[in-house]
Amino acid sequence: MNYDAIVVGGGHNGLVASFYLARRGLKVAILERREIVGGASVTEELWPGIKVSTGAYVLSLLRQRIIDDMNLEGNGLYVYNKDPGLFLPLGGRKNLYIWNDLKRTQKEIEKFSRKDSLSYSKWVRFWDSFYQMADFFMLNPPISLSEVGDLLYRFKGSIDEETLTLIGRTFLQDARSFLDEFFESDEVKSALIEDSVVGTFASPSTPGTAYVLAHHVIGEVNGIKGMWGYVRGGMGGVTSAMAKAAVRVGVDIITSTEVEEILVKDDTVTGVKTKDGRVINSRIVLSNTDPKTTFLRLVKEVDNDVTKRISALKSKGVSFKLVGYTEELPDFGNGTSLSPEHVASELIMPNVDYIEKAYDDARTLGYSREPWLSINFQTSVDPTVAPSGKHVFSIFGQYLPFSNKLDDMKEKIAGITIDKIREYAPNFKPIKYEVITPLDIKRRFGIWEGNIFHVDMTPDQLYVFRPTVGMSRYRTPIKGLYLCGSGAHPGGGVTGAPGYNAAHAVLEDLGV
C-alpha cells in the first residue's frame, strides 16, 4: 500500500492537514488508533442516550478560513452561541454574568465597581486590536525575532503604537498583573482570568500566562468576535464534519489502526508500520501526535541531541474532567428552571488568590484541595445529546498533575469537585458521572502525560521555540516528517491552525 502522505492520528488538526493535501492532488491516508476519528474533539455515548464531549467541550478558536474552505457548515457543523459566556457565583445571591453585549456586561460589573465598568470597554477595545492580528499569527508559520519589526510596521496604520507595545508584552507578562492594569475589583478579575491558566501548570502570577489568556480570547462563533459556542451533538460534530470534507476530496480514513513506528532510512521517512505488522509506504508523514510521542516512541532512531531537547519539554498535564448527567439543573440562587447561568460556563473561582492556592496545593500535595472549576451544560441549548429531563454536564478542573497513580485519586477528586459545587448549588446531584484524569487523557487520546496542549504554552515553548528550536516550522530533522498537532505552532485548542500550516509547509516543499 502506497500513499503520498500519511497522517498519524485522526484528531482535528490531522483532518485539516489531510484535507488541504488531498485537495491539491496528493493521495492521503489518516491512520487513527481508535474506532472513531476526532482525537480529543469527540462525542461519546457513555450511557444510553447520554452523549458527552469527553475532551474539548466548547468551540471558538477554529479559524473561519478553515470552516469556509472545508465547507464545515455544509457538512453538518452547527454551533449554538454560548451567551452569557461566563457566570461567576459568589455565594448567596451575589454573582456576575459576562455577556457578549458590552452594555449588558458593564451593568453587571457596576455591581462591583463603576470604575471597572468603564474600564471594561477599554478591555474589549484592546482585544479588538488583537483580533486584527489573529489570523496573521495563527495561519502562518511563527515569526522569528528578526521579523518583529516588520510585524509592527505591518499593523502600524491600523493599531496605535501603545496598543502594539501592550500586545507584545502579553507574550511575557503574567495574567494577574495584566488584569490589574485594567481592573480593581477582584470579582471582575476572577471572572476573566480562567483562560490564562487553562491547561497550564502555572498560577495567574506566572510570567507568560497573559499570552495563554490572549490565545483563548481571539476566536469567534457565527461571526461574533469573542463568542464561544456549543457544537450541536457535542464536539464530535466538528470532527465528523471535517471527516466528511476530507473524504470528499479523496482522503482514506482508516480507524482502529495504531501506528507502531514511523519508518526512517538514511534520515528520510519511508512510511509507517502498524501495530498489526503492516508496512504502509509514503514519502511524507505528518504526525498529529504530540512531539514526545513522535520522537520518544514512534521514531526509533533519533539523534541524541534531538532526544534531549524533546525529553526536556514541559508536558505535564494538570487538567481533569467530570462528565455525566443530572435530572435537575443546579440552583445557584435563581431556581432550577433553565436560566442564563446554565448556558454560561459556571466558574467556581471566587477570587484570584483561590486559584493561586489551588496551584500551590498541586505543587506540594499533587492535587488541589479546592480546585477551580468550569461547569458547562450542553443541554442548556442542545436537546440532541440527552433524553428529555436529563441534563448533560462537562466539568473542567485544575489542578491535578499527571501521575501514573491517578486511578487511586478518582473518587477523591470526584468528591472534592461535587462538594465544592454544592457550596454554591446545594442541589447538584449527578445521576452518573465519569472522572477523566490526565492519566485517562493519556490512555484515551494518546497524549503524553495527558497534556491537553501536547506541551505547555509557556514563553519558552511558543512561536519559534515551539515545540523546540529547529522544529518550529513543522519540519523536523528527518526529511519528509512533519509535525501537525497542537505541539506545533500556534498551540492548543480546537483551532485547526497547526494542521493548516503544516499542510502548506508540505505543499511548499513539494512545489505543489
TrEMBL record:
InterPro entries linked to this entry: Amino_oxidase, FAD/NAD-bd_sf
Top-level division of the source organism's lineage: Archaea
Name of one Pfam family that matches: Amino_oxidase
SUPFAM superfamilies tied to this protein: FAD/NAD(P)-binding domain
Domain Amine oxidase: 14-497
UniProt GO molecular function: oxidoreductase activity
Assembly mode: Interacts with COX5B; this interaction may contribute to localize PYROXD2 to the inner face of the inner mitochondrial membrane.
Function as written in the Swiss-Prot or TrEMBL entry: Probable oxidoreductase that may play a role as regulator of mitochondrial function.
PANTHER family with a match to the protein in the record: PHYTOENE DEHYDROGENASE, PYRIDINE NUCLEOTIDE-DISULFIDE OXIDOREDUCTASE DOMAIN-CONTAINING PROTEIN 2
Protein name as it appears in the record: Pyridine nucleotide-disulfide oxidoreductase domain-containing protein 2
Organism, scientific name: Sulfuracidifex tepidarius
